[in-house]
Amino acid sequence: MPQNDQQSAFDLATAVRRAEGPALLADLDPTWDVGNGILNGGYLLSVAGRAAVLESPHEHPVAMSASYLRAGAGGPATLEVTPGPAGRTLAHSLVTLADDGGPLITVQATTATLTDAASEYSVPMPEVPGPDECLDMAANAHLAAVPITLPGITQHVHSRLDPATAMWALGQPSEEPVLRAWVRLADGRPADPVSLLLFADVLPPTSFATGKMGWAPTVQLQVLVRGLPAPGWCLVEARASEIAGGWTDEDYRIWDSTGRLVAQSRQLARTAR
User: Fold this and answer.
1) Most exposed: 65, 194, 207, 224, by fewest CB within 10 Å?
2) What angle do CA 182, 183, 185 make, to 5 degrees?
3) pTM above 0.90, yes or no
4) For 130, how many CA atoms within 13 A lie in the half-sphere containing its CB?
């Protein structure tokens, strides 16, 4: 837990609360941005996940399918949760997150109660050096081939890039759009199903690995949370399989500190610009 048992920055930044009427309220934190005041898509999805769980009989978000309608910035927001079918093991809802300008994202949400049971079958986690042997992206930004302005989200999430997929940061891009990194919340808060929604969109665009920098707006993001993560660093792998016509896909796999797969995601985004 964060030092002195204080509520974590992530919990504060993703908090939702009830108000008069059916809508829930949130205060979107502008420091969870990816540059130019644009909020990270995983951060917005985490806020929506909080709302889905608050209005569900179940504890955890397990399947979230989000459409991103426009870029979001910090400030007051509302969340409308429209309940769907609900049963003993899972419940469905539609969540709309909006600010003063209108809807930002709509999310088809499924909630359930996850466990930390061992996998019956799983593709093994890739062999990656430990976090201390990987590249601290924020601490080494001055070594980049071109000047880099670190986005606000790097204040809140520590990332350690796998050297095998990090050479782009030192001006030596790869031919393959793949990134791997160990990640954790900066204040030491252990990962949970809601923070896994954040981790499913936390790395730079995979095009960075090939030397193509710039904002790659997310259009659609689906996240599957598969289990309760163990404490410690999570390993995140992001991989694009097709970049064409101004569009790119990204597949994420996330393992906890024990090597157990705890989340997956797929997104469609515009190519970096």
Assistant:
1) 65
2) 155
3) yes
4) 4
